[in-house]
Amino acid sequence: MRPISRAGKTRPGVIVRAQSALQALRPHAASELLPSVDAGIPTMLGLLGASLLDSSQATNDVEETLDGLAERYDRSDLRVFVLPTLILVEDPRNASSQTSVFAAGGDALRLDQVDAVERLVRRARENVTSPDDVVARLEEIRSRRPRFGPVLTVFGYTLLTVGFGLVLNPTVTALPVYLVLGVIVGSIVLIGNRIATLSLILPVLTAFSVTLLISLLVRPLVHDDVLRLVAPSLVSFLPGLTLTIAAVELTSGQMMAGASRLVSGIARLGLLAFGVYAGISIAGQPPAPTTAPTQLGSWAPWVGIAFVSLGYYLYSSAPRRSLVWILYALVVAYSAQLLGDALVGAEMSGLIGAMIVIPAVMLAGRLPSAPATAVMLTCAYWLLVPGAMGFIGLSEAASGTSGATSTILRTFGSLTAIAIGMLLGAGLSRDVTAMSRGWRQGRSGSRGEQT
Prior knowledge:
Elements: H1 2-25, H2 41-54, H3 59-72, E1 79-83, E2 86-90, E3 99-103, H4 111-127, H5 131-142, H6 150-167, H7 174-192, H8 196-200, H9 202-218, H10 226-230, H11 240-251, H12 255-283, H13 300-315, H14 323-344, H15 349-364, H16 373-384, H17 387-399, H18 404-450
Antiparallel strand pairs: 1-2, 2-3
């Protein structure tokens, strides 16, 4: 009986040690670094700013939000500086004029966390909530676990892959390829993000693996371009949103933030393109199709939008009852882009799309049942931004395909057009809101005088 007793005692110890070893491989969460007590207004602003940056907001928007909060808390003397990975808050009331530094730029927040952070900022602005309560609530938001488990998360990624593939209007034979690649890449992303070392090379490894798989096994059976087959499955790695925000910051005069973010986005594209190039180099350049592929038709992108909305809802753990609003933002973005294509051409269609979708989302965000506007805008930007175009262009350049330079130039032209459209749309929304507020105040004032 003694050996059995000893085995029963050592086995749990081995399991606990194995769990601890695996836990040590996981990247440290940013929420572990958040202080929860004795938080002043500078600390509150710095931590809120870091969370807004991790919500994929531009530095000029974050700085404007923090300056507004500082004024609301009667601390307009605080000086706030926002960079893509840092928040600097200088307190002149401190004898040593201390500058507090808060790190950002970690893992992007999920959509449910983006919604909660924006609502927390709104509540702090309206109620002047205690800084300690704001920081404690922020820590709870950042440590919140996803609403959906691994199976639904991978299923959501698969829907995203199929949806973005349908937006490209592929061939019928490409659909099962998107389905299989979505499951494979979704599983790789789910596992790779939990291991710090593997997450560093995850873009290159994933792009290499799927390209090799497509080139060796799938390409002889599917009459479609390799890059069109690979790009939708890499949707979580494509830096289209990063490049668009960089263009917005550069257009807004945020040179340091925009330039650093632009370099980061181009570097991510380069890693993906290198993975594709390595895969094609090993498998060999695929032969060109002898016949022109037959695409599904104009209905495919609309079905793809429905798949993308549900995919975002599951993969990024969107807030409850937000699926209809995500679908609304995607339909508006795609419809506006089609309108822009008809009016000014494909390269400039993003300008019309962004200029229309931002006021439409801002208007919908006023309804009580709608999620935070950042949730809808994040999904809409992913449909507008030409991250796949840049990835395809760099991959073609790496493999020596003719026409790659033209694709890259069109990509950056589209980025600039989208950035200008975003600035115009946001400015139009602010102006209409200010005019509406002034109209209501003038109307109430005239009623008071008559009384």
